[in-house]
Sequence to fold (233 residues):
Amino acid sequence: MIATIAAIRSLSPRVKEFVLQLPQTVSFSAGQFVVMTINVGGDQIQRSYSIANDSAGETDQLVLWIALNESGRVTPQLFQMVVGAQLEVSEPQGGFVLRDASLQQVVVFVCTGTGVAPFRSMIHECLQQQDGSHVVLVMGNRHREDVLGHTEWLQLTESTPRFHYLPVLSRPNEADVDMQSGYVHAHYRDWVIKNPQAHVYVCGWDAMCKEARQQLKDLGLTRRQYFFEQYDG
Fold:
């Protein structure tokens, strides 16, 4: 289907939010993605982008959080587009979705970079459950300026006691005293150790996902307790 860019907003030096107006209403589950087809030099190239809407279900607009890959073929062209431009996108798809069983457990979301995008609707869906358990977001980035949705997560922490937000910077400055330093693994381990029945969703760079998979196995979690979506860069 052909979507129209309804809004563009810079979220960080490398990431832009694209709001796509669809020609029809679609339904999506929290965590799904769409496939975008874009013409680059006569070639039809496809790229998958997670849906970053704040709630799942029926919608005629899709929110995408897209990072610029300066050496790539698609995002340099995409970042030159303006409001009103049209793009071809697929119906929402993908199996990296929130499991019903997770709604009764502590849920830990672990991500790097734009890996937080599919978690946005997942987190809100978890928190809509009145009898739900704790929800934890452990988000890794290099620098403070790379953190996506920081204000939204802080506001959610203040309004919802069972939501816990742990931003982690691998290259912090001295002023970043309100954020954790290092890598995400040290910060989700404590939650998993204290809650051995927890469900863990991981999305981000390949190296982080590989390490997280081994860490969760070592902690004794079964394959029914952790779920992965990974990407390059």
Summary: The chain has five helices and twelve strands. The chain has two domains: 2-89, 100-231. The helical segments are 75-78, 117-127, 150-159, 185-194, 206-218.
